[in-house]
Amino acid sequence: MMAAIKGRDTKPEMIVRRGLHRRGFRFRLHDRALPGRPDLIFPRHRAVIFVHGCFWHGHDCPFFRWPKSRPEFWRAKIGANIERDRAARTVLRAADWRVLTVWECAFRGKSPEHGEAALDEAAAWLSGSSGDAEIRGDDSGAG
Fold it and tell me: How far, in whole angstroms, is CA 101 from its chain's centroid?
């Protein structure tokens, strides 16, 4: 069953890719040479973007729930993902890369404007010089 889960070209990732491309940003995809294999790489801006699913990366939002079946397995699996994400960010920062994490919940809203605001925020971050950041969804879960 888990073999069917995609690690790239997911719906949230495609939204980010299309939205940033539409805003004039050009990027590379899934560079294996970089720690954590970031989803989007912007060498010109010395920046990378990770697009994380709330479930698989253990996001503390209303869309994440610990599974009731096989809880030990899921805690170990998701915990390892969280630790791997943390290690990749640390190595990227040490190599002078800026890191943006865009969470799936940023695009889970009732209106298209919800996602557009997240894309505008990502574009502003790329154009600026601020350090690491993350874009989260509405914490109410309503969008």
Answer: 4
